[in-house]
Amino acid sequence: MTSQDDRLALRTVVDFWWAPFKDAKRGTDATPLSNWVRLHYGNYCPHQETSSDASIQTNVRRPTSVYCGGCKTEIAVDAEVPSVRLLV
User: Fold this and answer.
1) pLDDT at 33 over 60
2) CA 80 to CA 74: how far, in whole Å?
3) Chain-centre distance of CA 13, in angstroms?
């Protein structure tokens, strides 16, 4: 976390443990990574004093705003593409 007068930045690292399996939907061996990632997270709106869930993904144009689910106030900016480090 980085705190400055005008912003608070949070950087997370996601470690994803993966084991080979058969993809039942496609009938093939599954692959560990695709060309995009979706990351679900929780957030807090200081205006409504409530928390909610949201998600970001790699195939979205950036920067993009994150809004409160209740009052629709911008509460954050998604500035970087999420990345995943695969541990096998």
Assistant:
1) yes
2) 17
3) 10
Name the residue with higher pLDDT: 82 or 47. 47
Which residues share a beta bridge with 2?
9
Which positions ≥6 away from 87 have C-beta within 8 Å? Answer: 15, 16, 17, 18
71: left (phi over 0), alpha (psi -120 to 50) or beta: alpha
2-11 pLDDT, tens per residue? 667 777 777 7
What is d(CA 27, CA 15) in angstroms, rounded to the nearest whole number? 27
Residue 1 has pLDDT above 60, yes or no: no
- C-alpha–C-alpha distance, residues 43 and 75, integer Å: 9
